Amino acid sequence: MAEEDELRAMFQRFGHVTRVFLAKDRETGMAKGFAFISFTNRDDAAKACSAMDGFGFKHLILRVEFAKKAT
User: How much is the average pLDDT of 1-18?
Assistant: First the structure.
């Protein structure tokens, strides 16, 4: 599974990454399979979404999109 530092390294080439949050199970500490990457600049985030959606990483195919507001 990906670790926060690996995700930061993959995404920082698109711009300044301010935060990486890798969701983990509280009991096991295992990754839940999703993360949030925050950028300083929205345009950089859009570039990252475009370039990284569908990207192969380890045994995963990444799904990258803007977070949606909870309803």
Answer: 92
pLDDT for the residue numbered 69:
82
Q: pTM for this structure?
A: 0.84
Which pair of structure tokens corresponds to residue 37?
């990457």
Residue 65 per-residue DSSP state: -
Task: Collect all residues with Cβ–Cβ distance below 8 Å to 9 and sequence separation of at least 6.
Answer: none
User: What value does the mean pLDDT of the chain take?
Assistant: 93
* Distance (Å) of CA 4 to CA 21, 22, 71: 7, 6, 27
DSSP 2-64: --HHHHHHHHGGGS-EEEEEEEE-TTT--EEEEEEEEESSHHHHHHHHHHHTT-EETTEE---
